[in-house]
Each structure stands twice: as C-alpha cells, then as structure tokens.
C-alpha cells in the first residue's frame, strides 16, 4: 500500500510539474539508436495570485482563434499574467500534423499526436479558458468576434454568441484547396486533420477487405487496390512512402492473396516531386520511388474525379486520360477559410489571396488584430516605397547628399526594417553598402564620397527583387506564435522603451523588433527507413542515418511529455509487432 502511494505521488507530481527536470530518452531498436532530448522551461509560480484575481477588471482581454501550431505556440509562451486569455476553436486539442501520414497506416496512433488544449492552458500562470466553438464573423469596429458552438445544447441547435476583445489573435489555419475541380470534395480524402488520417486508415483496410471477398472479379480487385495520391509535395510523398511500407511490411502477411494486385500512383502537375527541396533530394526520391514500384506521373493535372475513375490531363501534350482507383488522397495546397475571406472583404483586402499583415504580424489597418500561421502572410514593405524617407533620415546635416559613412550609421536599422537589403547584399556577395554604391557608380567609393538621392535610388533599385513570401509550414507558424507571445510579454516595457528599428516615416523607433523567420531545415521521409533532410547551410543528408535524426527531432518537438512518450512507444511497438491493421 505504501509503494502504491509513493508511485501515485510521483505520478501526480510529474504530471503537474512536467518541467521539473531534463529528460533523456534513449532507446535501441533493430540495431539502431535514438536519442531524443528536450528541456522545458522552468515552471512559473505566481505569488500574487490573490491580488491578480481582484485585478481582473484591469486585465486586457486577448481572444485567440484556433489551436493549431501558431495559436498553441502563442499560448505556451505567453507569460504575462496581466492578460485574460480566451481560446476559441472547434478543435479542443493540438495536433502534431507532421506525423499525420504516420497515423494513416498505423505507424503512430492518432491519440499519440494530440494534446488536449485544456492540458496546455491549465499549466499557464495567466488566466485562460477554452470554449469549443467556431468563429463565424469578426467585427473589428466593435472589437467583437461572433462564434457558433460546436455542440448541440438540449436539442436547441448550436448556440451563437459574441465575445469582446482588446487584442485578437487570428490563427485559424487554412482549408484544403480543391481548385474547384469537379468531384474532389465528394470523392477524395484530405490529409490535414487527425480525423482525415483516421478515415484514410479505415478506408485502406476496407479496400483490402473488399478485395479479399470471393465474389469480386480480378479487375474490380485491381481497382480497389489502386491507391492514387494527388500532389507531389512533402505530405503526398510521405503518405505514398508510408503506404508502400505498410503494404510490403505488413499487408503481404495479412492479405497474401491480393498483395500482388496493389498499385500506388503519385500524380504531380509540375515536372518533379518535392520541387521545394534541393534537386539532389528530388532526384533521389524519384529514383527510389521508381525502384519501389511507386508510379510517379509528373506533368499530370487532375481535371475530374469520379467515384471510381480519376481523369488527368497531360500538361505538355494536352491529352486527357482516365484511370480506375479504389482510394484517392488529395494533397495539393491550401485555401483561405470563409470567415477570413469575409473579414478580408470587410477591411478592404478582398482582392488578396490571404490575410495581409505587417512585419509585426498586425493585420494591415488594424492596430489590435494579429494574424499568424497559414491564414496570413507578411506584406513586407518595399525599400523603394520609402526610399526618399530613408535618404532624408540618413541625411542628418540636410545637405541633400549622403556619404557612405552617414549611410553606414543607419544601415543596421535599414537591414532590420527591410530584410531584403541584407539578402540582396548576400546574393551579390557584398560585405557592406560601399560595395553596393561602388557597383552603382562604377568606380571606387570612399567614405567621403557623396551620393545624391537619384544615385541612391539607382543603388537600391534591385533590392526589392529579393522579397519572398514565407512558406505555409508548421515551422513558420510555430515561430510566429513564439514571437508574438514575446511581444505580448514585453508590451508594457516596450511601450516605454521601444527596441525596434528607426521609424523612417516618423519619429523615434518601432516598439518591437520585426518578425524574422529562421529556417531550421526540412525533412522528407521516403520509406524503407530512409529520410532526406535539407538543413541550413545547403547541407543535404539522405539515408538511414537521417531517419534517426528525423526520429530524434520529431520526438523532441512534441508539445508535452505525454505525447513524447506515446509517440516513442508507438515507434517501438511498430518495430516489434508491426503496424495495426484493425478497423477500430
């Protein structure tokens, strides 16, 4: 009895204080080793909890829409107790979406990649609560969001209610983009949510069970066991690889009579799969899929999806052909959610594809509304739009000309405010502005040499060509959430002491440093315990060793110790017992 009591106390302590210590998980599987390391931030204790409760009326209300990568990262890193946080989302959990392809084939269980959002906010030292509802309208003039409950209450239907806010954080993500192709919505499976992965898993097993029935013809069996993946991006490629491994490692033993009828086809409209990766990775992936028997059809654009046939158009020749299929997975891109489209029309952004924000993640024209993740994009300001203001700010003596020395004094602020300047200098292999002015003037430039505004414009005329939109990835959304939380944590301090770059069109400095994305690399699992990685510094790694790096990174990136332990145990279980093929 005493032993049980000790174990219960230890378990309760660990659950309530998950960051008491560092954890090192080391396990060995099939002759290989994996080290997953993670360190959580120290738990925060609030000695003035009673005073804060009394001061509730003074707290600024922050409404967070969405519990995806951006919203959850914001919540996990928000530490200032002066906010009253209200989380609203139709999904009461956070999902580790990079592992969804693993869920489709039973490599990882769906419960292992989700963490209840209430578990996350209950450990925070800020006042936070969660409501399971969907935002249907945003009213920025009155600072309200209108929501519809996800639950039917007492048979009266789904209730609607309004929520006031002082600050609004929009992180609702995006929906699947069907490009209005007939039959996609009705006949294909998406792979964006946990529910999608569960449906795909059940359907894969259904196809094999139906194909095993004695009453079917061989043609019908072949159709049922033809799996088509539309989209040659990371998600489509990883799902194709996972399905191939599932068939060859597990299905062949369970369904021996139909294993030879399985066919996997990957359709991509461009010339290559994984075209956002290094060409070395693209070439390796295409060669490996060819060896594995996965039929990769590049230059094939889907034009129609029936319930049993899918029609494609050859991009170069224009020929349209049809092929029978048993299951089709659609993984081609993302589109804007209806509530965001209505909000964009309301604030004058109706002609844009996604919600536009400034470099501080504020929605353009809305001081207290922030947007991050897949639903928004940063509208980086162009240098040439502010070229005159930059010139006059640097021209401290109002002489009408600039020396290189004068401009060097504000170069740091310019590079921070306009990151394309630094990117342009790097692309041209220039160490400083003097090199840029030298190229513009075509002769030697010394610090005493002066340039007028026209020469200045000429020198910077090509800088804006380096502007690029950030990709819609979990990595970007997560970093944006962390950045915005840090801004909120230092809101009061930075109001008094701004820390950002110079205001070239005004006085003083910006309140915060602008958001800067730091690319940490990307993975592309290719099946057969082989993964391709493209890491910073143009470093490409492909093979079995990279697979162990993938394991380690994904284990350490889990949002809780619970999901970390579950994912690792799922990997171990798969190695020992294989993938689960039940239809539960």
UniProtKB/TrEMBL annotation:
Its EC number is 1.6.5.9. It catalyses: a ubiquinone + NADH + H(+) = a ubiquinol + NAD(+); a quinone + NADH + H(+) = a quinol + NAD(+). InterPro entries: EF-hand-dom_pair, EF_Hand_1_Ca_BS, EF_hand_dom, FAD/NAD-bd_sf, FAD/NAD-binding_dom, NDH-2, NDH2-like_C. Its cofactor is FAD. One of its GO terms (cellular component) is mitochondrial inner membrane. GO terms for molecular function: calcium ion binding; NADH dehydrogenase (quinone) (non-electrogenic) activity. It is a peripheral membrane protein. Residues 382-417 form the EF-hand domain. Gene3D superfamilies: 3.50.50.100. It comes from the Eukaryota. The keyword Metal-binding applies. Belongs to the NADH dehydrogenase family. This is External alternative NAD(P)H-ubiquinone oxidoreductase B1, mitochondrial. It comes from Nicotiana attenuata (Coyote tobacco).
């Amino acid at each position: 009895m005493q032993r049980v009591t000790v174990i219960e106390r230890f378990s309760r302590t660990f659950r309530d204080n998950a960051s008491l210590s560092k954890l090192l998980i080391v396990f060995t599987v099939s002759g290989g080793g994996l080290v997953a390391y993670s360190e959580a931030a120290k738990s925060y204790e609030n000695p003035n909890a009673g005073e804060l409760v009394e001061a509730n009326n003074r707290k600024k209300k922050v409404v967070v829409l969405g519990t995806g990568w951006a919203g959850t990262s914001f919540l996990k890193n928000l530490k200032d107790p002066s906010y009253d946080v209200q989380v609203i989302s139709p999904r009461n959990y956070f999902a580790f979406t990079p592992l969804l392809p693993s869920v489709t084939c039973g490599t990882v269980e769906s419960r292992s990649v989700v963490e209840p959002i209430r578990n996350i906010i209950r450990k925070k030292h800020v006042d936070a609560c969660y409501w399971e509802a969907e935002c249907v309208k945003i009213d920025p003039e009155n600072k309200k969001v209108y929501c519809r409950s996800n639950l039917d209450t007492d048979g009266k239907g789904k209730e609607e209610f309004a929520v006031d806010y002082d600050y609004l954080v929009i992180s609702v993500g995006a929906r699947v983009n069907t490009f209005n192709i007939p039959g996609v919505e009705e006949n294909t499976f998406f792979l964006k949510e946990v529910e999608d992965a569960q449906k795909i898993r059940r359907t894969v097993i259904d196809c094999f069970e139906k194909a095993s029935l004695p009453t079917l013809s061989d043609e019908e069996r072949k159709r049922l066991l033809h799996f088509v993946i539309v989209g040659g991006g990371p998600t489509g490629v990883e799902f194709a690889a996972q399905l191939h491994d599932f068939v060859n490692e597990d299905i062949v033993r369970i369904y021996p009579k139909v294993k030879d009828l399985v066919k996997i086809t990957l359709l991509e409209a461009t010339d290559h799969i994984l075209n956002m990766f290094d060409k070395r990775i693209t070439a390796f992936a295409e060669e490996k899929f060819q060896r594995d028997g996965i039929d990769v059809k590049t230059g094939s654009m889907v034009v129609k999806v029936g319930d049993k046939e899918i029609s494609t158009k050859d991009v170069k020749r224009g020929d349209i052909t049809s092929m029978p299929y048993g299951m089709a997975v659609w993984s081609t891109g993302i589109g804007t959610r209806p509530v965001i489209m209505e909000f964009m029309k309301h604030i004058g952004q109706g002609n844009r594809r996604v919600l536009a924000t400034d470099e501080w993640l504020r929605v353009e024209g809305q001081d207290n509304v922030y947007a991050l993740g897949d639903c928004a994009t940063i509208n980086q300001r162009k240098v040439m739009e502010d070229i005159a203001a930059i010139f006059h700010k640097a021209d401290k003596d109002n002489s009408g000309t600039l020396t290189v020395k004068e401009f060097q004094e504000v170069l740091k602020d310019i590079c921070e405010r306009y990151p394309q300047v630094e990117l342009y200098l790097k692309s041209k292999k220039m160490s400083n502005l003097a090199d840029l002015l030298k190229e513009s003037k075509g002769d030697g430039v010394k610090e005493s040499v002066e340039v007028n505004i026209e020469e200045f414009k000429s020198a910077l005329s090509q800088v804006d060509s380096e502007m690029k939109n950030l990709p819609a990835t979990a990595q970007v959304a997560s970093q944006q959430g962390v950045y915005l939380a840090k801004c909120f944590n230092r809101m009061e301090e930075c109001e008094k002491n701004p820390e950002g770059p110079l205001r070239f069109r005004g006085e003083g400095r910006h309140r915060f440093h602008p958001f800067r994305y730091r690319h940490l690399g990307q993975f592309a699992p290719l099946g057969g315990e082989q993964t391709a990685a493209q890491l910073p510094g143009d470093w490409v790694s492909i093979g079995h060793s990279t697979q162990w790096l993938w394991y380690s990174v994904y284990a350490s990136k889990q949002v809780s110790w619970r999901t970390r332990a579950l994912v690792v145990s799922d990997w171990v279980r798969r190695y020992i017992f294989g993938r689960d093929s039940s239809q539960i």
